[in-house]
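Supplementary material to the annual report.
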Amino acid sequence: MPERPYTLLSCALSIDGYLDAGNGERLLLSNADDLARVDAVRAESDAILVGAATVRADDPRLLVRSKAFRDRRLAEGRSASPVRVTLTRRGDLDPSARFFTTGGDDRLVYCPGGVAGRLRRRLGATATVVDAGHRVELDRVAEDLHGRGIRRLMVEGGGNVLTQFLTGDLADELQLVVAPFFVGDSSAPRFVSDGRFPWNAGRRAALAEVRQIGDVVLLRYALSPRFQDE
Ligand SMILES: NC(=O)c1ccc[n+]([C@@H]2O[C@H](COP(=O)([O-])OP(=O)(O)OC[C@H]3O[C@@H](n4cnc5c(N)ncnc54)[C@H](OP(=O)(O)O)[C@@H]3O)[C@@H](O)[C@H]2O)c1
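Predicted assembly:
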């Protein structure tokens, strides 16, 4: 059986289940203490994956922020921050995005064969473009990452990518942070879209932890027998 990394999905959402505002402006859902917690989870990861829409919308760095965590990783012989990974069908990624211009050189971009050549020319040495064949299938991406030594993968969104990991039964753990307000705009990106999820009224996920962090709440779900309660 092909192996895949331990996969932890992480995101913050409003009470009404949105990941962001609908007006194109960046919405801060989390708080400072929770961002520090997320930083610690990043520091434990070998790779962080987001969808291309998140790279375009948020222009994230996806680096470990705490110097103490970076120093610890370096002392362990690892890179200061995890490998950064994104997926694209269209290949519409800007090499001046912070994903490509900040931090170390460990970046992977999975795309269909039809756009790989163009994307390689566009991104140059900033990233390794992986030709994933006709379609980018997430189970194959997970196997490929495992083959590259990634044992712990953190998926930070957005909803499109989270939906695929969940419906594909490719996640071991879900960390949901609920912010204490509503977005109330159905044009905003939702946590997940329609799909057949392995967890439903007849097969409930296991709630592993509930933690209040200031004005937000962290819900940790164990989604597979591989769940690591730390
Ligand atoms: N609150 C949070 O914790 C959080 C975290 C992350 C993001 N967000 C928000 O989420 C929003 C973006 O989420 P989203 O659901 O619109 O998009 P997303 O999941 O970030 O990215 C979707 C894009 O990823 C690429 N993609 C996904 N699956 C693929 C596959 N199997 N093969 C090839 N490419 C694939 C496609 O890129 P192409 O279009 O390039 O083909 C697709 O359009 C932003 O507003 C962001 O702020 C919130």
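The pocket of NAP is lined by residues 11-12, 19-20, 29, 50-54, 57-58, 87-90, 92, 136, 138, 156-161, 164, 189 (CB under 6 Å).
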